[in-house]
């Protein structure tokens, strides 16, 4: 079963992990093995294919691939979280954008025009699932990424977004959201900042990412039809309110993951 970040809004996108820990590695803050282990997370295996010089179908482990990217001139990594009608963080060409849109995420290299899109295969019974990930690398356009805000802009937008999401959730009668959704949200709230990003990231980026993921978790409940019963017209109105909040949260996540590269470039 192929999955995308939208399938579980409470989990960190794999492209986020690769961006954060890849940047920490490239900055000299972590070892190659530690970076690869953090990107792997609870997955069974990650492989990378399509790197410049690869033979057709050739695959590599994360540690080797990250080292190869450095040799190729990659100086940093940026996250993209595109969705239909919103190519957030992408640069083209269209073939790469289509792959990234299908996955709902991607990583773009800084210093060398390369991009990686994860192909995630999940298997096993509910409660005992595992995943394998194949990162497909290809050339991308060397242009500014689409619609990525600065960390300061993202923090300001999120302050309003979090208030709006909380008010909206209250109006939707969150008490009726159902035990599974509420348990997931409560588990998310109990997690500390230590699980976010990677060594070397500024505290502000951690705060922005925490707020962005909280907004995403709230919106997942609000958009799931939980709470008070609504008509079709009311559901459509609800989605029109949620859409800009969802975009704000995704923009903030991208800004947080890209902060290590952006702050370095601003110096």
Q: How would you portray this structure in words?
A:
Helices cover 48% and strands 14% of the residues. With 267 residues, it is of the alpha+beta class. A hairpin with a 6-residue loop joins β5 (114-123) and β6. It has helices at residues 14-26, 32-40, 62-71, 94-103, 151-171, 179-190, 203-222, 232-257, 259-266, and strands at 45-49, 59-60, 76-80, 106-110, 114-123, 130-139. α1 (14-26) runs antiparallel to α2 and α2 crosses α3. The chain starts with 13 loop residues before the first helix and ends with a helix. Strands 2-1-6-5-4-3 form a six-stranded mixed sheet, with helices on both faces.
Biggest sheet strand order reads: 2-1-6-5-4-3
Radius of gyration, in Å, reads 18 Å
β-strand amount = 5-15%
Query: Based on the structure, what is the oligomeric state of the protein chains?
Result: single chain
Offer a few descriptive terms.
about 270 residues; alpha+beta; 6-stranded mixed β-sheet; 9 helices; 6 strands; about 15% strand; globular
Question: TL;DR of this structure?
Answer:
By secondary structure, this protein is α+β, with helices and mostly antiparallel strands. The protein contains nine helices and six strands.
Describe the secondary structure blueprint for this structure.
Blueprint: H1 14-26, H2 32-40, E1 45-49, E2 59-60, H3 62-71, E3 76-80, H4 94-103, E4 106-110, E5 114-123, E6 130-139, H5 151-171, H6 179-190, H7 203-222, H8 232-257, H9 259-266
Parallel strand pairs: 1-6
Antiparallel strand pairs: 1-2, 3-4, 4-5, 5-6
């Amino acid at each position: 079963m192929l999955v995308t970040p939208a399938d579980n809004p409470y989990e960190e996108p794999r492209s986020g992990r690769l961006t954060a820990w890849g940047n920490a590695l490239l900055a000299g803050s972590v070892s190659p093995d530690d970076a690869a282990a953090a990107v792997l997370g609870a997955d069974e295996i990650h492989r990378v294919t399509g790197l410049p010089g690869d033979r057709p179908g050739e695959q590599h482990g994360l540690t080797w691939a990250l080292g190869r990217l450095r040799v190729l001139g990659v100086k940093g990594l940026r996250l993209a979280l595109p969705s239909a009608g919103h190519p957030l963080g992408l640069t083209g060409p269209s073939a790469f954008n289509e792959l990234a849109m299908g996955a709902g995420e991607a990583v773009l290299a800084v210093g060398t025009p390369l991009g990686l899109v994860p192909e995630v295969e999940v298997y096993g019974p509910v409660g005992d699932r595992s995943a394998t990930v194949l990162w497909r690398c290809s050339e991308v356009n060397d242009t500014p990424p689409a619609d990525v805000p600065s960390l300061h802009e993202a923090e300001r937008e999120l302050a309003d977004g979090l208030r709006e999401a909380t008010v909206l959730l209250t109006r939707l009668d969150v008490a009726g959201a159902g035990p599974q959704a509420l348990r997931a949200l409560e588990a998310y709230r109990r997690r500390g900042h230590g699980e976010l990003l990677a060594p070397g990231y500024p505290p502000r980026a951690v705060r922005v990412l925490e707020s962005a993921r909280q907004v995403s978790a709230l919106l997942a409940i609000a958009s799931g039809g939980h709470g008070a019963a609504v008509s079709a017209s009311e559901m459509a109105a609800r989605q029109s309110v949620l859409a800009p909040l969802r975009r704000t949260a995704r923009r903030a996540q991208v800004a947080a993951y890209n902060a290590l590269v952006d702050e370095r470039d601003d110096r």
